[in-house]
């Protein structure tokens, strides 16, 4: 078992606040109430729709609903498991590298290029597959997981179910606004069907210098449909201008990086490239990256817990039909399957840790 001090790496009670210095300009995101969305509050749905069309990112206030409370409290527990996972020796973690054109398992520091010059990233990830975690105890998993993950399977299963359902609730409401049939969304995101969905633990090292030149996670848009992110320290930045170009490594429109201040009681929810694809660019997947935390916050290692909702492996990646979706020339085609589509996006980001 890991030592007790390994767990002290995640100490949210001790974190200083995000600095209010103008050298760290922050983005204004809409705060959307999960409870109001669950209650089908039309004003809240309209605000969420606008935000996902223009910026692709919102704060989602979680407290007060069963799913929201599971994510809010579960994220702290998952982060504690993350500290134990990352505390394993590197050679042990490397036994869990991705295989089979999937992104599950361990991504070591430096496995991705942070820029065109090939500068290595500084964050490590561990991606825990939804489909393995939601199995009954007597069912065969597709992959091997470290004992610390296996011991917490029930926690992960609960977290996956709550996050998946929250993502689907939002996607269903956005689909309704666009006139997309609910079955089109549901059929592509059946919980038990195999998908690239996973809980990602991320760990970024404390900042080495005030200048903080290094990038923990390079500029990207998420590949899946919707992402539910829990973080406690600053470091996440979004590109100020929205873009609907799928797959580019760097921003393709002029703008600047703005910090996303973590907000207590809220998840940060953003759409991914699959949502852009399904809606022919009506919905936006916000470009983002992770740098070391600003100011005093940079003294702590930075953890985040991310849930990626992705289309199931055999879903066809085509533009869906709906009154709010401009016609696209792929609408009557078969489309590439999601698993292949996502793998290609990952390779496009310069990942060199992926098996095939
Ligand atoms: O750590 C964060 O705040 C964001 C992580 C992220 O963007 C990702 O893992 O895709
Ligand atoms: Fe991301």
UniProtKB/TrEMBL annotation:
Q: Which intervals hold domain Fe2OG dioxygenase?
A: 195-311
Its Gene Ontology biological processes?
small molecule biosynthetic process
Q: Name one Pfam family in it.
A: 2OG-FeII_Oxy
One function term, GO molecular function aspect: metal ion binding
Top-level taxon of the source organism: Eukaryota
The parts of the chain that form a coiled coil are none
Q: Which UniProt key words apply to this protein? A: Iron, Metal-binding, Oxidoreductase
Return the annotated region ranges for Disordered.
Answer: 1-25
Query: Family assignment?
Result: Belongs to the iron/ascorbate-dependent oxidoreductase family.
UniProt protein name: Fe2OG dioxygenase domain-containing protein
């Amino acid at each position: 078992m890991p030592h007790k001090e390994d767990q002290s790496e995640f100490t949210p009670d001790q974190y200083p606040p995000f600095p209010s210095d103008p050298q760290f300009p922050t983005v204004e995101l809409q705060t959307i109430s999960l409870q109001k969305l669950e209650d089908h509050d039309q004003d809240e749905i309209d605000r969420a729709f606008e935000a996902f069309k223009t910026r692709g990112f919102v704060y989602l206030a979680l407290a007060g609903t069963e799913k929201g409370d599971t994510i809010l409290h579960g994220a702290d527990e998952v982060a504690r498991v993350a500290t134990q996972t990352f505390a394993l020796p590197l050679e042990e973690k490397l036994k869990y590298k991705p295989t089979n054109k999937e992104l599950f398992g361990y991504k070591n520091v430096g496995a991705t290029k942070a820029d065109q010059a090939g500068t290595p990233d500084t964050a490590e990830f561990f991606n825990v597959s939804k489909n393995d975690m939601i199995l009954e105890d007597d069912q065969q998993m597709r992959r091997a997981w470290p004992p610390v993950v296996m011991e917490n399977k029930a926690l992960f299963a609960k977290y996956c179910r709550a996050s998946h359902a929250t993502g689907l609730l939002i996607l269903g409401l956005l689909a309704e606004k666009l006139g997309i049939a609910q079955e089109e969304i549901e059929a592509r995101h059946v919980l038990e069907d195999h998908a690239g969905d996973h809980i990602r633990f991320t760990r970024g090292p404390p900042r080495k210098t005030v200048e903080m030149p290094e990038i923990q996670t390079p500029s990207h848009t998420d590949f899946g449909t919707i992402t539910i992110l829990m973080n406690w320290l600053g470091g996440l930045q979004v590109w100020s201008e929205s873009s609907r170009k799928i797959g580019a490594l760097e921003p393709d429109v002029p703008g600047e990086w703005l910090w996303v201040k973590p907000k207590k009681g809220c998840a940060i929810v953003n759409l991914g490239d699959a949502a852009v694809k399904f809606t022919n660019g009506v919905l936006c997947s916000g470009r983002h990256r992770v740098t070391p935390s600003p100011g005093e916050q940079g003294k702590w290692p930075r953890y985040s817990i991310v849930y990626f909702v992705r289309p199931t492996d055999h879903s066809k990646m085509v533009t869906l039909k709906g009154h709010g979706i401009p016609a696209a020339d792929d609408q009557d085609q078969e489309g590439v399957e999601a698993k292949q589509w996502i793998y290609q996006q990952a390779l496009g980001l310069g990942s060199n840790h992926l098996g095939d």
